[in-house]
Amino acid sequence: MTFTRPTAHLTFTLTSPNHTTDRLHASGELSEAPLPLPQSITDGELSSLKTKEFDLLIVGAGLSGATLAERCSKQLNMRCLVIDKRNHLGGNCYDYVTEHGIRASKYGAHLFHTEHDRVWNYVKTFSEWIPFDHRVKGLVKDELGNEKLVPIPPTQETVNLLFPQSNENEIKTEQDMERWYEQQRVVPMDAQNNPRAPLNGEEAALSRVGPNLYDKIFKHYTKKQWDKYPEELDASVLLRLPCRTTTDDRYFGDKYQALPKRGYTRIFENMLLGDGNISVKLNCDYFSHKAEGTLPKHKLLVYTGQIDLYYASMGMPKLEYRSLRFQEEYVEWDEGEVEKDASDASSSKDASKEPSTSDNYFYQPAMVVNYPGPDVPFTRIVEYKHTPNQPRGIVDEKTRGTLIAKEFSTDEGEPYYPVPNPENRALYEKYKKLADGEKNVSFVGRLASYKYFNMDQAVLNALEMFDNLQENGVLEEKRAPEEFGEGDGMK
Ligand SMILES: Cc1cc2nc3c(=O)[nH]c(=O)nc-3n(C[C@H](O)[C@H](O)[C@H](O)COP(=O)(O)OP(=O)(O)OC[C@H]3O[C@@H](n4cnc5c(N)ncnc54)[C@H](O)[C@@H]3O)c2cc1C
């Protein structure tokens, strides 16, 4: 879509980037939790804005919507109304502090990582950040049936632990590991016995890691994630299976890996609140207000919701998503108790060489422990207390409780992960064609693009769209969403 940059009443003050870090904290706001928002924001009422006219009506207070609102306000002095149907800022990045004082994410653990200096410099203006190299462990049975806690994605240590060898055959170098993979890999062959491309997820996985790692780490985990075995999935879903040859057990390899010191929600508070150009309304569904005719006048609509819902009235099929159900549990140790009930999933500690529950009252030795086996229905357990951006009480004192969230993949619930198959891709293209024909509507972000964007990709995409507006007067993508790469996807 194109948007003619209004000139009559707007001043395009091109200010230099604002380098304040956590403006709210600097101004004396010491809260560790999301700020209580006034009723004028949470009432979902648009009648008070009836007589106002906005340059941008932004549907969605997630990273995509917030980045555009912040840039357009600060750099182009545009008046923005940001609405969200949820009762909080931040979209899927929203985090909060529980009644027990633990910082947790409502929509699943969010680990920030990026290679992009531009994104890093931008997010640094809204928060202080604490470096955090994310590491994931998997609880996996070795060849003898003993549970081992191993690095995920697999490293040299993973293979040595799961497939113990005599000392001289142990994997010690990248060359050893490469040789091991070579021995394991099963290359699909055509009728003439020539190598051919994998036809499905199972063939793709076997060609990457071979049957042993596949069976122990990827096969059942994939089934739990997608409710389909790899052989029923596109080869593309498993072609990117991470198989490392090194000892690097960090989950991400990016230059910048960090967590926001006072949580992600603070970033959105700094971006959106206290800016005279930006009005925010929560509990405010775009479609209800559109149907009621209560949306205030606006020159351009920025829509970050589901693209298929935008065109729901056309009766086309819905795009498919996988979702997650989080089963949260607060686990508390009685005074003097140093060992946790051995019957629960903490059997991981038997295999652990990491912090023991007795020292720090942790449920498990890492923030994320994956359960790749078919014996439990959940995929992984997240224990938030491991993150270094916990509120003061949690960090300084040995709090005898911890919050864990077991994750179950499901078809029902919040739309999290686009389902990558040819049918959905073709259907999305139909929606995209409709969207391209809209005047004064921009479709932005992960739901509108039917694309899993990592946080940094969502920010970069929005920044580049802003560039386009600033340079060419059009709020359009500079590059297609696919060009940002796959994103982490389901973890
Ligand atoms: C479970 C999970 C874990 C993730 N973990 C990571 C991670 O570790 N690292 C990482 O880099 N990225 C992670 N991500 C990706 C990250 O969440 C996204 O990059 C980011 O949320 C994208 O922001 P967005 O604004 O495009 O979308 P969203 O955050 O989804 O925001 C869209 C907003 O639009 C609102 N909306 C939709 N329809 C309407 C309507 N009709 N009316 C009003 N409001 C509406 C929604 O309520 C929502 O708040 C994860 C994603 C998920 C699902």
Q: What tags apply to this protein structure?
A:
2 domains; Rossmann fold; alpha/beta; single chain; 29% helix; 491 residues; binds flavin-adenine dinucleotide
Concise overview:
The protein has helices at 23-26, 39-42, 63-76, 117-123, 156-162, 174-184, 201-226, 235-239, 264-272, 286-292, 307-310, 357-360, 392-396, 422-436, 445-448, 455-472, and strands at residues 53-59, 80-83, 95-97, 103-105, 112-114, 129-131, 136-141, 147-152, 256-260, 278-281, 297-303, 321-332, 368-370, 380-383, 401-410, 417-418, 441-443. It is of the alpha/beta class and 491 residues long. It folds into two domains: 17-132 and 256-319 and 419-484, Rossmann fold (3-Layer(aba) Sandwich); 136-239, no CATH class.
What does this structure look like?
By secondary structure, the protein is α/β, with parallel strands linked by helices. It has 2 domains: 17-132 and 256-319 and 419-484, 3-Layer(aba) Sandwich (Rossmann fold); 136-239, no CATH class. The protein is 29% helix and 17% strand. It is built from 16 helices and 17 strands. It has helices spanning 23-26, 39-42, 63-76, 117-123, 156-162, 174-184, 201-226, 235-239, 264-272, 286-292, 307-310, 357-360, 392-396, 422-436, 445-448, 455-472, and strands at residues 53-59, 80-83, 95-97, 103-105, 112-114, 129-131, 136-141, 147-152, 256-260, 278-281, 297-303, 321-332, 368-370, 380-383, 401-410, 417-418, 441-443. The strands form 4 sheets. The chain has a 7-stranded mixed β-sheet with strand order 8-7-13-14-15-12-16. A 5-stranded parallel β-sheet has the order 10-2-1-11-17. The protein has a 3-stranded antiparallel β-sheet with strand order 5-9-6. α3 packs parallel to α16 (455-472). The longest helix is centred in the middle third of the chain and has 26 residues, at 201-226. The protein is globular.
